[in-house]
Specification:
By secondary structure, this protein is an alpha/beta fold. The protein has helices spanning 16-19, 46-52, 70-83, 96-108, 123-131, 143-156, 167-173, 175-184, 199-213, 233-236, 258-268, 277-291, 297-311, 354-360; strands spanning 42-44, 55-60, 88-92, 111-117, 135-139, 160-161, 190-194, 222-228, 271-275, 320-325. The structure holds ligand F0G.
Length: 366
């Protein structure tokens, strides 16, 4: 008997490039680099619907191969890079892009160099980049410094830039909007995303625009984006020199896709808001404890934004709302072990004793 797997009729998801080949800039000859990204669940969130009166869905992007939405863009950026002959890629990152870039480069057999702000990225992401053999350099500066240097390197040396200033990234990421429309059979009334460089906000807007144009939907969702209060340049209308937030993924003071995002907001009757760190952690806990979805702090800002805007009456009862939660909670798990007043949560310790454990659990004998 042959040991070669004979997969004739597989229902396995083939990654966003193969699934949406007719809507991306690829040909039959394109050497596709994929880890099976995309096809993530769009989950109803009854607890959030009950809290808001809206019809709330969560697009769980932590279910991508490296645990964040970055994989959708990275499959395109690395594929197009390899197609153009690139042997090395480079990016600046607050963590997730570096993890994704290193993984896709490893799969393609090329090199990834990643620049991250020293001491400012979550341990899980740092570990991923190193595990995938990325050449990771901690720069003694912030993300914005890293991006400037990555752009200069790509302009002057033989390295291919895979940050979202590379349009291939946005193209790959727009597929998330296609997936939402496939499930809902139309666009939602509101779509909420966390905002750092505003690349993903721009990508969803593009995806929904294309769906509307081809007649797959009847409307453009109102695109709502949220930044952390200590790191909210788009909301403030100026560059933030020293951005600060516990949501390290979106600690960005000078977003790369700023102008595109403003255009997308205008086109979609959208909104940018700011949420403080305490609210972000509160929302993270609500999502994990009441919905069963564990996300990193930056992702929870979508939930916090929903709660704020529903309370303000902007998101009305009965509205269909999709929240993108961008990265998995396991990347940066320490926040779950802290109470809202900042003290550590210590799991209880018990003896090897059934009666004692029953007692601690408050169980009465049947
Ligand atoms: N959520 C997470 C978990 C992220 O990692 C990022 C960005 C965003 C949201 C914001 O997306 O930049 O398109 O507005 N992370 C980048 C990185 C900057 O390097 O991993 P955006």
């Amino acid at each position: 008997m042959s040991t070669t797997p004979q997969i004739r009729e597989s229902r396995q998801w083939r990654g966003v490039i193969r699934e949406y080949a007719d809507r991306l800039d690829v040909t039959d000859a394109t050497p596709i680099v994929t880890l099976g990204e995309g096809g993530t669940p769009l989950l109803p969130a009854p607890a959030l619907s009950a809290r808001t009166g809206a019809n709330v869905w969560v697009k769980f992007e932590g279910m991508n191969p490296t645990g964040s939405f970055k994989d959708r863009g990275m499959t395109m950026a690395v594929t197009k890079g390899v197609e153009a002959g690139a042997k090395a890629i480079i990016c600046a990152s607050t963590g997730n892009t570096s993890a994704s870039a290193a993984a896709y480069a490893a799969h393609a057999g090329i090199t990834a160099a990643v620049l991250v702000p020293e001491g400012k990225i979550a341990m899980g992401k740092l570990s991923q980049a190193i595990a995938h053999n990325g050449r990771l350099l901690q720069v003694r500066g912030n993300f914005d410094d890293c991006l400037e240097i990555a752009r200069e390197l790509a302009d002057n040396y033989p390295v291919h830039l895979v940050n979202s200033v590379n349009n291939d990234r946005i193209e790959g990421q727009k597929t998330a909007a296609f997936e939402v429309v496939e499930v809902l059979r139309d666009a939602p009334d509101f779509h909420i995303v966390p905002v750092g460089n505003a690349g993903n906000y721009t990508a969803y807007h593009r995806g929904y625009s294309e769906e509307l144009q081809r007649g797959a939907t009847t409307r453009m969702p109102r695109m709502f984006g949220f930044q952390a209060a200590g790191s909210a340049p788009i909301v403030l209308g100026h560059v933030v020199k020293d951005p600060d937030t516990i949501a390290s993924a979106i600690r960005i003071g000078n977003p790369a896709s700023w102008e595109l995002a403003i255009a997308a907001r205008e086109n979609s009757d959208g909104f940018f808001g700011a949420i403080d760190d305490a609210r972000i952690l509160e929302a993270q806990r609500i999502l994990s404890a009441e919905v069963g979805i564990f996300v990193e702090p930056a992702s929870a800002i979508s939930v916090a934004g929903l709660l704020e805007q529903a309370e303000a009456g902007v998101i009305g009862k009965g509205a269909t709302v999709v929240l993108t939660v961008t990265g998995h909670g396991l990347k940066d798990p320490q926040w779950a072990l802290r109470t809202s007043d900042g003290s550590d949560i210590q799991p209880e310790s018990v003896a090897v004793d059934t009666a004692e454990i029953a007692d601690v659990l408050g169980l009465a004998k049947a």
